[in-house]
Write a structure and sequence with these properties.
The protein is of the alpha/beta class. It is built from six helices and eleven strands. The strands form three sheets. It has a seven-stranded mixed beta sheet with strand order 5-2-1-6-7-11-10, sandwiched between helices. Strand 1, helix 1 and strand 2 form a beta-alpha-beta unit. Helix 5 crosses helix 6.
Length: about 200
């Protein structure tokens, strides 16, 4: 079985739960009858200089945009230092990804690439109005735990990225693999089974 490369583009101020939640999901993928690694996760940044994440955590990126292996999955977390180099890299690799997903206000980064134009997305509920005003050509779905549109996907705020990552496992390997992964993680949330389960935030 092939190991699927999963890239996490990060910059200063990156929000820990947005990428560490999905990171742990992909590294805990539990496939029936399969032993060994399923996903290969790595961070990518403009340089290999340490990045200060939310809460003060220091992260040393695994690769630069020039040296990173081609990913099949990209996870874009909320962050403060996304720049044109990151946007260009996301545009380039998304031509060959199975899924390029944004978490929380990482949706703004994905939207800034232009890839979401004319498509559907969601974001953190406190950012709905700002997102709609800034990107009138994107159909914002309020109250969605996550939104999938072709090889692009977006999750609501923070913990929603965990559900979208489990859903990505389901897309690759089916419901049983997703359920086994959630069980292994002792994750009892069911949002990955129902993309509309953030309805409370639609009001």
């Amino acid at each position: 079985m092939r190991v699927i490369p999963v890239a996490f583009p990060i910059s200063q101020g990156v929000v820990i739960i947005d990428f560490c939640g999905p990171w742990e999901v992909f590294n805990s993928a539990d496939l029936p009858g399969h032993q060994g690694k399923v996903f290969e996760t790595y961070t990518v940044a403009e340089t290999l200089e340490p990045i200060t994440a939310s809460g003060g955590m220091k992260i040393i990126p695994n690769y630069t945009f020039e040296t990173a292996p081609p990913p099949k999955v990209v996870v874009i977390p909320a962050q403060g230092g996304a720049n044109e180099a990151m946007l260009a890299w996301i545009r380039s690799v998304t031509r060959a990804t199975d899924v390029t997903m944004a978490v929380c206000v990482g949706a703004f980064v994905l939207a800034d690439t232009g890839l979401l134009a004319g498509r559907s997305a969601t974001t953190f509920h406190n950012a709905y109005a700002r997102f709609e005003a800034r990107y009138p050509d994107i159909h914002l779905k309020r109250g969605a735990r996550f939104v999938e549109d072709g090889n692009l996907a977006s999750a609501g705020g923070l913990s929603s990225g965990i559900d979208l990552a489990i859903r990505v496992i389901e897309r690759y390997y089916g419901r049983e693999a997703a359920e086994k992964t959630a069980y292994l993680l002792e994750y009892q949330g069911k949002g990955w089974q129902d993309s509309n389960s953030n309805e409370i935030y639609a009001k």
